[in-house]
Design goal:
The protein is of the alpha/beta class and about 375 residues long. It is built from 13 helices and 12 strands. Helix content is about 45%, strand content about 20%. The two termini are about 25 Å apart.
Length: about 375
């Protein structure tokens, strides 16, 4: 099998290679060591929060912390003070030493990284995704710096959480830009809107959406009427930001273009090829891989032999029990067939496979072009080598 993504060292190097000043007044403090426990989500989160405190990292959980560390819905969103950036790699190493292996790092926005950690236990492979935000950028739109996000943070058990007004602003902006609002997050926004004073909640809504949304958005949050407004809220968020700070939004465009170029040149997805004779279980392995690694990758594609973008084969529905029984094609027919296959691989890689890898996809091939070199009669190839 072949993989396009190098392992552990580049994950940490993405953070270590960025210059930054040392944090002021955020020195690491001694923390009691964690007892060794069985690998689990609860132990992972406990190790993560323990290591962040041990390194003196100023961070906060931005939302969805109510059930932690026993219950985590989706990714764990952490805001980290930019001056503490170089203190994060030791945290990742501590998790790895504990048995939680970092297998994926996705720069999904400017100064924002998603780390996927996996581990094995008796029930199979488990995973947790941690989003580390040094500057909150969503849909190419800069919302807030992490200095603002960690300001006023409060202690909740053994971890830090964002201040209620910060969580309300962050969650409201994020859901507006994403365009979706799960029920549990709608409940949380309603709880936050009712917990803040009305003038404070309206001030936050006005900051994001202008005078148009000052009262309307707060009322919608309080009465579960926000989902129908989401398409318009995204437009108003953009418009308000461009009117208030046009240069701030424009300045980020070159950096965003560079990030997208790096994503294309160094895709974070995985491209796997499974080779072997008939009957050894290649298809079963391919399907199992997509099932086990589905939480780590945003999408997956499985191909058999070739992509079929050019001259797709017709499926007869009749299984081929003896692929070597037929006579091979003649020289000219074999060369034409070979040309179609090569063009299919080239075009599909540029138009289908590479874009999927750039978008953090898992691409698995059951057989590949190399199979033709090993077993020519299987493909009825009678041309020259």
């Amino acid at each position: 099998m072949r993989s396009t993504q190098p392992r552990d060292v580049p994950l940490v190097a993405k953070l270590e290679g960025v210059p930054g000043k040392e944090a002021e007044g955020a020195q690491a403090t001694p923390v009691d060591p964690l007892p060794q426990r069985e690998h689990s989500q609860t132990d992972f989160l406990g190790t993560l929060f323990h290591s962040l405190d041990e390194q003196g990292v100023r961070y906060c959980v931005l939302h969805g912390w109510e059930g932690l560390p026993e219950k985590l819905r989706g990714d764990l969103d952490l805001a980290v003070h930019p001056a503490d950036r170089l203190k994060v790699p030791p945290v990742i190493r501590a998790l790895r030493e504990r048995g939680y292996r970092p297998v994926q790092c996705l720069d999904y926005a400017l100064k924002s990284h998603r780390f996927d950690f996996v581990w094995l236990n008796a029930s199979g492979m488990k995973s947790v995704a941690v989003d580390i935000v040094f500057q909150y950028v969503e849909s190419h739109f800069m919302v807030a710096s992490s200095e603002a996000l960690v300001a006023g943070r409060g202690r909740q058990g053994n971890f830090w959480v964002a201040a209620p007004e910060i969580e309300f602003e962050y969650l409201l902006a994020k859901k507006s830009l994403k365009g979706n609002l799960p029920p549990h997050q709608a409940d949380r926004l309603r709880h936050l809107a009712r917990g803040l004073s009305r003038p404070e909640a309206e001030s936050i809504a006005g900051k994001l959406f202008g005078q148009w949304g000052k009262e309307r958005v707060v009322e919608a949050c309080s009465s579960d009427g926000l989902p129908p407004l989401l398409p318009k809220l995204k437009r108003m968020l953009w418009l308000t930001a461009l009117m208030r700070e046009p240069l701030k939004q424009i300045r980020g465009l070159p950096a965003e273009a560079l990030r997208l170029l790096k994503r294309w040149l160094q895709p974070v997805g995985h491209f796997l090829v499974i080779l072997g004779p008939d009957g050894v279980g290649k298809s079963t392995v391919a399907l199992r891989l997509t099932k086990e690694f589905q939480p780590v990758f945003r999408r997956y594609r499985v191909f058999h032999w070739r992509p079929n973008l050019i001259a797709p084969r017709k499926e007869t529905g009749v299984p081929v029990t003896d692929p070597h029984a037929e006579l091979p094609h003649g020289t000219l027919g074999s060369l034409v067939q070979l040309l179609v296959v090569v063009l299919d691989y080239w075009a599909s890689y540029l138009l289908v496979i590479r874009p999927s890898l750039v978008r953090n996809g898992l691409v698995v091939f059951d057989r590949y072009f190399h199979d033709l070199l090993v077993d020519r009669s299987h493909y009825l190839y009678g041309g020259p080598l």
